[in-house]
């Protein structure tokens, strides 16, 4: 058999297998219908959505604690376009399956984490943003989540470990004068092939994760412990949120908000506003990475310099 076909059969097997695993046993939930929307998630049986360490949160940057041990995130294998195997419309997001070989490590993480998939959250067009996390009360156009498990654990096993998952969160911001990105254009061109819930398409190596991330500085991030942002909202995630957005032309954002449907028939069912509302921080602490200087310290230095100047 032609090796490409063998690879496709393997991917197909993985996709079919995934259909029947516990990832889909979270009961029925949705974003926009009040009967199954986020306000109802806390009551889902076996769920954790009513917990005290939930995500997403509003990150207040002056309140973050500077941690000099949080160094640059090292992403190995993320530049390999061949690792992005297929794209699927899950009805609640667009989901990209990743092959083995993408590894995340950094000082401040308890283990090496393996990337399994990524997906996005968005609002309603380029003017109505839909990120999940906020930075200083600001919401961005979209949010990209790369989902990893600790030491390549299976999802079911990782759900039992309070640090079983590491999710990297990157913001996308629609910007009128942003430089066009051939990589995001390739990504959005595939969306037409997965317009309906349940549709999937193989990827052709035209973009890698590293290319989608553009020039975001991997040393500047916030860290906190939280949850999955979809039911069952398990409190098993080490979150890393990069505050500097990936700037994209508005057309990249509208491709998501106008092409995808949340149902398998497509009728009156655009997949939009697929974000969970903010959750309270409670008694948790957000940490700032070593190169993110606390703003309070900077303003102190500036005012000290100003006083010294006057003296
Ligand atoms: C969620 O927790 C709060 C406080 O612990 C409680 O008052 C509320 O009834 C709970 N809601 C559900 C749906 O369990
Ligand atoms: C990681 O886990 C996947 C799925 O369970 C498995 O196919 C793969 O071989 C594992 N990789 C390594 C390096 O152990
Ligand atoms: Zn997500």
From TrEMBL:
Gene Ontology terms, MF aspect: carbonate dehydratase activity; zinc ion binding
Substrates-to-products reaction catalysed: hydrogencarbonate + H(+) = CO2 + H2O
Transmembrane region(s): none
GO cellular component, one term: plasma membrane
InterPro entries: CA_dom, CA_dom_sf, Carbonic_anhydrase_a-class, Carbonic_anhydrase_a-class_CS
Assigned keywords, A-Z: Glycoprotein, Lyase, Metal-binding, Signal, Zinc
Biological function: Reversible hydration of carbon dioxide.
Protein name: Carbonic anhydrase
Organism per entry: Chelydra serpentina
